[in-house]
Amino acid sequence: MLNSLWHTLFAPGFFSSSAVWRALSMSAAVAVVSGMVGVFAVVRGQSFAGHALGDFGTTGASGAFLAGLNAVWGFLGVGLIAGAIMDTLGKRAKERDIATGVVLSLILGIGALFLYFDTTYRNTTGAPMTILFGSVFLVDPSLLPFVLCFDGLAVLLLFIIYRPLLFSSLNVDLARAKGVPARLISILFMSALAMAVEQSAIVVGALLSTALLIGPAAIAIRFTHRPGKAMLVASMIGIFSSWMGILLAYDSYNWPPVNRGWPVSFFIASIILLLYILSHLRLRMGTRRGKKVLQEG
Amino acid sequence: MYLRSVANTAPDPVLTVKQVSVRFGSRRVLDNISLELQAGDFVGLIGPNGAGKTTLLKVILGLQPPDAGKVEMEGKVIHRGNSRVGYVPQKISLDPDTPMSARDLVALGLDGHRWGIPLPSRKRWAAVDEALAAVDALRYANAPVGKLSGGEQQRLLIAQALLTQPKLLLLDEPLSNLDIRSAHEVVRLVSRISREQNLAILLVAHDMNPLLGAMDKIVYLAEGRAAMGSVDEVVQSHVLSQLYGYDVEVIRVQGRILVVGGEAPLPVNQSISVWDEALTHVE
């Protein structure tokens, strides 16, 4: 009885499959980076920049496919360049968002063209699906060390710029007056953001990379008001959602249409959204209870 | 002889602004401004909107290089990030979800410009608590900053500016957006800190009335020109008329001072702004 329940939860072969282990470890690494960087992206109001970086990455990845390279290099290369360009576009968040929005459609158009060539000339029909919606089960095992390496780099970068970044996220004028090189910090953060977004593009796809970046961070800052704790909680939520997503995707192999698993990204994005809604509900109930106590007191 | 010896023993000024001019394109924002602050001076920098008050603060902070003249802090030319200068910027509004406690925010004043993550240190938090106590903010030391009121956030920013033990504290419009009572509270607080720590204060405001009892000197800025001295010396019709470049009248009513624009040979909107000032003074 217990045994059958176990097998319903974890379909046979889940723990023995090397692809599953690879997916679990890779998504955990990506979730940690996304969660940590995401807290700052949310606080700095750069959610849109994060989303745009994912879209820019699409064009890079489809270009890389066309050139016969692995999509990962396209994601990272274009993401880092686009991040640097977006940072120089405007000093104010609004300015930057408008400029980014204008360029975004052009870049996505080029991406669509690349994807079309991918499917016609190179005969890789899976390319659009893989790039746009991710496929953590299909990532080339030889790339794992590189991905982990870039993850480590992004975390290291974030640790180095932590204090000045926190300061200039609070108020740029104040930080500059205290001697913080705000421009440099902003560019360095954009690089960390690009790395985080493009990494999660590999796991959940370019279109949904924002889910891992913004979702867990947005949930985390509702519950904690210390920066370090928020980063930790966001990472944990990211790991939980992506592991649950992988588990469900593995189980879905037996769901209709049988023997074709559902995309992991669908599950991860749904779980994050569910948690986000729950966090809103809980918080509301919390404040209502708080008010009641105040009234009674 | 006597006069000279007095001049020699007079303390060196904390801040010296020497003949500073700033132009934005063809517009003269600051025109040959000079002023001096001694330790413990509480000086109000007063003037209508667009007079160049914030620009002058930026020059003093080293954020805006002047086109002419220079600024010295304790005899040395200023530079950006001087730990002897504390700064509280104009209306900061923090997002309600900002993941920071009051302590976190204040601690940035100590080492927010340093690289890396802060190492756990009892000394660091003791310094933070001391600054919080100086502005009566220990009560909400652990509260999330985004949930605090504008006045409470302002106290935290003052505490943050005090952490490096500055000799000069610059406050940009700390009284705007505050009701009259809270404004008087902030003035009392700043005035007390100035006395306790022998700190020179330069407080920017567009309305001088909440500062009347507290400030030692006034710097009145209009049309990029400045006059400095005691309130009685500076706030006179002929002095201010010279600054504005047209006739204004100073009226004293029930202990309050109103500056009323006269026949201004200026575009209509500018003369209206002077009248606006007068109206805000009356309220």
Automatic annotation (TrEMBL), chain A:
Q: Which InterPro entries match?
A: ABC_BtuC-like, ABC_TroCD
> Per the record's keyword annotation, is Transmembrane helix included, yes or no?
yes
Main subcellular localization, coarse class? membrane
Cellular component GO terms, alphabetical: ATP-binding cassette (ABC) transporter complex
Domain of life the protein comes from: Bacteria
GO terms under biological process:
response to zinc ion; transmembrane transport
Transmembrane parts of this sequence: 20-43, 63-86, 98-117, 129-159, 180-197, 203-223, 230-250, 262-281
Q: Which UniProt keywords apply?
A: Membrane, Transmembrane, Transmembrane helix, Transport
| Localization of this protein | Cell membrane; Membrane
Q: How does it sit in the membrane?
A: Multi-pass membrane protein
- Supply the SUPFAM superfamilies for this chain: ABC transporter involved in vitamin B12 uptake, BtuC
Question: Which is an annotated Pfam family here?
Answer: ABC-3
Tell me the protein family, please: Belongs to the ABC-3 integral membrane protein family.
**Name of the molecule in the record:** Zinc/manganese transport system permease protein
TrEMBL record, chain B:
Any idea what this protein is called?
Answer: Zinc/manganese transport system ATP-binding protein
| Highest taxon listed in the record's lineage | Bacteria
Q: Which CDD domains match?
A: ABC_Metallic_Cations
PANTHER family from the UniProt entry: METAL TRANSPORT SYSTEM ATP-BINDING PROTEIN TM_0124-RELATED (PTHR42734)
Q: Which GO terms describe its molecular function?
A: ATP binding; ATP hydrolysis activity
Q: Which SUPFAM superfamilies match?
A: P-loop containing nucleoside triphosphate hydrolases
Q: Which of UniProt's keywords are assigned here?
A: ATP-binding, Nucleotide-binding, Transport
Q: What residues form the membrane-spanning segments?
A: none
Outline the extent of the ABC transporter domain. Answer: 15-248
